[in-house]
Amino acid sequence: MRLDKFLKVSRLIKRRPVAKEVADKGRIKVNGKLAKSSTDVKFNDLIEIRFGNKIVEVRVAELKEFTRKEDADKMYEMISETRIQAEEE
Question: Would you say 62 and 73 are in contact if contact means Cβ atoms under 8 Å apart?
């Protein structure tokens, strides 16, 4: 499954165009490598997403084409959520 679609279906990122933009700006790594929106995501892959001042790490638990809102968080396992200090001048 494509990375941008996984992020949308799992609701880690609400909309696919936003997921594509975040990936294309180099803010997402899959298994430690920079990933594009078209990167193939497989079961057990480790995804690291940088949102502004935090980094979220998740492991892929399930791959589904569609899922209900209540079941979306079962598609991944949260590994860590780290806040990054804003660089002070």
Answer: no
